[in-house]
Amino acid sequence: MYKIPVTRVNFALLKKFNGYKPFLYNITTDACRVLKYPKSNPVFSFFHSLFAHHSNMNHSCPYNHDLIVDKLPADFVNTKFTKILPFPVGDYLFNSKWIVNDINRADVQVYGTLS
Length: 115
Description:
By secondary structure, the protein is an alpha+beta fold. Helix content is 23%, strand content 37%.
């Protein structure tokens, strides 16, 4: 992203049903507020916990640098989605939009299969 700092994040979870369809979550939130007060949005906090220990997104705002997720183990994510929050098997899409000054600056899509 060439414009910083990130102020809002929208994330949606989609499941493949004859194409990817919304599944459970589509939330837009003030990223700085949630990172400072994680209990204010437990759904965002759950998804952030998936990669928080494997990224440099582990401090409070402002985020005025590159955001990196590195060496995220598939077993760790699988445990979160099967034991902590039991999801049905299938193909999923995690879509996130990173918003700066009310303009969508980045769209990140992560595809995965839970089997």
